Amino acid sequence: MTVLNIDKLISNFPLLQQVIALEEVVWFNPNVTTLERGLPYVGLGEQDIHDASLRLQRFAPYLAKAFPETHVTNGIIESELIDIPAMKLALETHYQQPIKGRLMMKKDSHLPISGSIKARGGIYEVLTHAEKLAIEAGLLCEGDDYSKLLEPEFRNFFTQYSIAVGSTGNLGMSIGIMSAKLGFTVSVHMSADARAWKKSKLREHGVNVVEYEEDYGVAVEQGRKEAEQDPRCFFIDDENSQALFLGYSVAGQRLKQQFEQQHISVDKEHPLFVYLPCGVGGGPGGVAFGLKMAFGDHVHCIFAEPTHSPCMLLGVHSGLHDEIAVQDLGIDNLTAADGLAVGRASGFVGRAMERLLDGYYTLTDEHMYQLLSELNQAEGIQLEPSALAGMPGVIHVEQNSEYLARLQIDESTLANATHLVWATGGGMVPKEEMAAYLEKLSV
After folding, report:
1. Which end of the chain is more exposed for a tag (fewer CB within 10 A), N or C?
2. Is the pTM higher than 0.85?
């Protein structure tokens, strides 16, 4: 691990002074490049996403029967794409800034089974592992009707194996619910910031929840140690998993199809800006990869983080990636945005995607609560705090003339832009918990 000279680091990267002071910051990456130049650093390509999509198709008959809420989509786990015109007006009033383009929301907050973006990657990795075990045991072939996984022999088979994961909440929910449904013994190691209701829901599904007084990093490390002691235990590594990453990436082609259905163009004259809340980076990184593969250089992905947990901004901006944590700068990593409460970013995602991500910004918990309340009032949509992190992104883009000039986007092109806020969680939040969120800050 690198020995850090913090004074020298701040001297080399003056923006860190504001980061340490917990001020909201915006940084547009000057090193962003084309998909063609950036793709080799990812180590994955179109075929990998296609294979992931086919795997989800194979499991669709099983999911449609195992989880009735997916029956309407024939077992495909997907979310709505909607316009939010009333929220656009609310943002224009809030920031005293006109928004020239179209403002939309991707409601991964309401994905079936686990109610967050983690239903993409987490469920996909569990299914990938289950398929591998069942095929190796001669119980399953890729040409089978996968609804046969509901038969008792499969459940009896999977009970011989266990799965472990460390989580701030939502990843644990998706992995815990899916693993338990298949029959795996599953342990979710939950960090101190994980919500009590998420722990309770997991226990209702028969999941072993291990609680820690420390943050996400400790929960992950303990989950990894548990798995190392049991050859039949599979550890799902949110920091480094390519399977998780690919599960998220399938969102790109699916969004492209939704855009085509709604006659929304994405090209040089119609740029797409996507704002993604970021914790350790796997979810937004995988989605961003899928978006870049679907839309090429016409999509611009921007990550949003809490002022108290700016791990990806810190890692990419300094070039140190997972060799630096926010705690190294004296930042406490305490935030109401539990899904984003991560001190050290994924080195895999940071290094793979740094040339393909346009920018990063931070916002305070108070700011998220205010936006949560405004969205509820304007659109009647209720999200958890972390899911609001993407909402101010459109303001930062439209205010930054230097960034727009670099992209060669003028006023008329900006008027044709689509701005997409990726809502990451909130669909399963209990009513009393949501009421408490809304009481935090009334607009």
Report:
1. N
2. yes
Query: Residues 234-264, buried b or exposed e (16+ Cβ, 10 A)?
Result: bbbbbbebbbbbbbbbbbbbbbbebbeeeeb
Using CA of residue 23, residue 24, residue 30, residue 36, what is the dihedral sign? positive
Which helix H or strand E contains 212, and what residues bound it? none
> Which residues does residue 234 pair with via DSSP β-bridges, in sequence order?
163
Spatial CA neighbour of 316 closest among 356, 276, 288: 356
Q: Which residues contact 370 (CB under 8 A, 6 or more apart)?
A: 94, 441, 443
- Give me 315's structure tokens: 């890692």
Q: Which amino acid is at 234?
A: F
Tell me, what amino acid is at 209? V
Tens of pLDDT, residue by residue over 261-290, are 999 999 999 999 999 999 999 999 999 999
Q: Which amino acid is at 390?
A: G
Res 1 pLDDT > 70: no
Q: What is the DSSP string of 381-407?
A: ----GGGGTTTTHHHHHHH-HHHHHHT
Measured CA to CA, the distance from residue 193 to residue 297 in angstroms comes to: 37
Residues paired with residue 302 on neighbouring β-strands, in sequence order: 275, 359
Q: Exposed, middle or buried, 116 (CB in 10 Å: 0-12/13-18/19+)?
A: buried
**C-alpha distances in Å from residue 49, one per residue of 120, 237, 239:** 13, 19, 19
Q: Which residues contact 5 (CB under 8 A, 6 or more apart)?
A: none
DSSP state of 4: P
Q: How many CB atoms lie within 10 A of CB 21?
A: 10
Other CB atoms within a 10 A radius of the CB of residue 429 amount to: 22
